[in-house]
Amino acid sequence: MTHSAYVTPIVDSTSVFRADIFKGKVLFCTGGGSGICRGMTEAMMRHGASATIVGRKLDRLTQAAEELGKATGQTCIPAQADVRDPTSLREAVSQTIEKFGKIDYVICGAAGNFLAPISEMSENAFKTVMEIDTIGTFNTIKATINYVRAAKGAYIHVSATLHYNGTPFQVHVSAAKAGVDALSAVLAVEEGPHGVRSNVIAPGPISGTEGMDRLSPKSATGWKPAYPAGRLGDIKDIANATVFLFSNAASYITGQVLPVDGGAEHLRSQF
Ligand code: HXC
User: Fold this and answer.
1) Rounded to the nearest whole angstrom, what is the distance from the C-alpha of residue 129 to the centroid of ligand 1?
2) How far is CA 181 from CA 108, 145, 160, 175, 255, in A?
3) Which of 75, 100, 101, 124 is buried most, with the most CB atoms less than 10 Å from its CB?
4) CDD domains per the record (predicted)?
5) Which amino acid residue places its CA nearest to atom 53 of ligand 1?
6) Could you report the average pLDDT of every consecutive run of 10 residues in the chain (271 residues)?
């Protein structure tokens, strides 16, 4: 298959949604100091939300929070926590409540990844990614659920598409993200009657991210698959889906997994 002449455009959510739809709302985002989750946070702030970004590296978080505040005119605070450690997560939640008084939306985005075949991956390496991605998501839900329930808010979990098939060198992340998808489905069913929604965004190949840098050795050789959308994904593509899924326009959407991958899932044989 050759590249399509048609390339889908990259747009800003502000060209589609009003700038004030999240005015007065508060976002709590793990992994928000960089990459996709930072982009998701920025988009929410551009529509009026305040935010707490959570991660392990305080320097990076502090700088990101300042930059996000300047770029959007909203307030963003950094909170240092490791999602594997429930105590530090609860502290990050306390800081958020102290600053903003509530939590409406949660993005469970903290994740770890590297390429390794099963035969060479240590037990601890597998366990580490399960602990960050799956148990970290559970810990984040536990630490925030009472606040999100009080706000009748919503969760978005950042997953992947690679566990829909057998993706080589990704056994840890495949198992971990399958767990994340399952957590979200149960959360949606249990918490729906309390007014809480839970959905998953499954990014495909997103350019300019740490995940893509680590995971695409083929791109270094000049190999390019013919993506149906005609291009790699952009962080804005994930940010736009985030704005939609948290907005009232998605009020009847819960328990779903939304791949945002330009159709790449259907071209797995080329990856
Ligand atoms: C093999 C590795 C490894 C590697 C670490 N390990 N890196 N094994 N290849 N490249 C092993 C270590 O040897 C150790 O096992 C165990 O993993 C734990 O490593 P630590 O460094 O002690 O853990 P920690 O400091 O907690 O680091 C966690 C990490 C780290 C996941 C290993 O690399 C990380 O946080 N990376 C940055 C986050 C990231 O990549 N984000 C993007 C995610 S993208 P032993 O046996 O030696 O003790 C994503 C999207 C997926 O998730 C979908 C994309 C299409």
Assistant:
1) 7
2) 11, 17, 9, 10, 9
3) 100
4) TER_DECR_SDR_a
5) 160
6) 74 95 98 98 98 98 98 98 98 98 99 97 98 98 98 98 94 98 98 98 91 64 70 96 98 98 78 48
